[in-house]
């Protein structure tokens, strides 16, 4: 008995994986947002028991404005990741991928959106990493950038460049496909 794995099967598995990651990044973004509001509006001691066992009490005691800035950068990165996986899940759910004509504007637009989101994540990750390093140089005890979930900016830049190149290839493919359709 031969088991044949088709592109449709792989896309179905990727759809499930994208949903799992989407739910995870939404929980993480919600956790950071909730803890930020809880610490700022209800109980300042919440900075000691922040989302995912982070201790940001030293930062909160150092300066409330720096605390807000750091949390804003962390939340922006978390929200952009959630938006990215929402776009992926929506694209796969809407079944906009036409495998009979893979070079189409919908797919090119999807690749460009993911590329721009990757670029945004890398920008805010670099900003957050540099800001965290600056706070540490001022004597603030901070968790690592990995624990703050803002590490890996270089990977996001690399991913965005690759996606922009692929989008340009798709643009040329769409042009060639249109010329062939007009010729026939």
Automatic annotation (TrEMBL):
It comes from the Bacteria. This is DUF2975 domain-containing protein. The chain crosses the membrane at residues 12-34, 67-89, 110-128, 148-170. It holds the Pfam family DUF2975. Keywords: Membrane, Transmembrane, Transmembrane helix. InterPro entries: DUF2975. It comes from Lacibacter sediminis.
